TrEMBL record:
EC nos: 3.5.4.26, 1.1.1.193
Catalytic reaction annotation: 2,5-diamino-6-hydroxy-4-(5-phosphoribosylamino)-pyrimidine + H2O + H(+) = 5-amino-6-(5-phospho-D-ribosylamino)uracil + NH4(+); 5-amino-6-(5-phospho-D-ribitylamino)uracil + NADP(+) = 5-amino-6-(5-phospho-D-ribosylamino)uracil + NADPH + H(+)
Source organism of the structure: Rudanella paleaurantiibacter
Active site: E56 (proton donor)
Family, as annotated: In the C-terminal section; belongs to the HTP reductase family.
Keyword Glycosyltransferase applies: no
Protein name: Riboflavin biosynthesis protein RibD
PROSITE patterns according to UniProt: CYT_DCMP_DEAMINASES_1, CYT_DCMP_DEAMINASES_2
Amino acid sequence: MNHELYMTRALELATLGRGFVSPNPMVGCVLVYDDRTGPRIIGEGWHQRYGGPHAEVNAVRSVRPEDEHLLPQATAYVTLEPCSHYGKTPPCADLLVEKRVSRVVVCNDDPNPLVAGRGLTRLREAGIAVETGVLAERGRELNRRFFTQMEQQRPYILLKWAETSDGFIGGPGGQPVSISGPLAQRLVHRWRAEEPAIMVGTNTARNDNPSLNVRLWHGLNPTRIVIDKMGTLPQSLHVFDGSQPTLCYTYNEPPADMQATCVTLNSGKDFLSQLLADLHHRHIQSVLVEGGVALLSSFIQANLWDEMRVFRSPKMLGAGVPAPAPSGRLVSREMVGPDELSIYRAR
Ligand code: AOF
Ligand code: ZN
């Protein structure tokens, strides 16, 4: 059977969970029966929402009663190793054993320490043929936030900024200036809705006074993360208006009336690694870092980033705060209205 064809379909189904399953991975499953007349899909499913049934369960449920007797001769294509743990649902590996499918083809192994190979072992011990690694790169790309969280014990970090064609990110003295156009701004709101958290540094919170919510797109507001090492930010800023969950990281004691969850870090230790460890502990899978230049540069210098999204506007400023230098591997470049958007990946 054409493994890549059915795995492509399973990956396509997985993407239907985008935005609804985080911090779980997106997972799809296709059940294929093969006989002399050729292969035919008898069931399909995907993980649809966090806490809900896994892809395999939905695929098995979708099989028509008259096709159920075909399952023992069917192949299950799953984009992630079937789970072996009792989580919010019983183990999917047990379900596939119970249905006695003849073969399971997997795209990615599950790095979750609760699973980590035990799902595959369970299937093999039950006499089911198992093949892994089919379209593995595509699966890792689809669930790159999940794999980073599991393997590196930190959130996936997306750095975003807009610069002028003469390389400035802000006006002289850090004054806010409008650099990118309305289409780029709308796209940024879409990105805010796509990530569970959004972060700004002290100067950006103070000078731009951003709300950090989703207004120009549909979707959930992300958790706001504000860095205020010295604890000097006024509580009158939009980020402290209490309108959405907000985390503030500082070396100081928080003011008593703060409308945010304040986390005091150890000033004798590295700020960024403590910050990322705390976010990981809170199961925040990815963070969109929206500036300013000091915060962006600290992620770049520590080599703790995964993606850079840079708008270059045709505007010129002549003077101001220089933008960071993009690095990594350029993966796409396109025009967004008058602005050129370049996306880089660390690996
Ligand atoms: C599968 N199929 O469709 C998904 C899997 O909290 P729970 O019980 O939903 O378990 C979440 C974990 O299960 C998640 O971190 C990942 O390891 C695995 N996800 N496994 O067999 C699925 N979504
Ligand atoms: Zn499962």
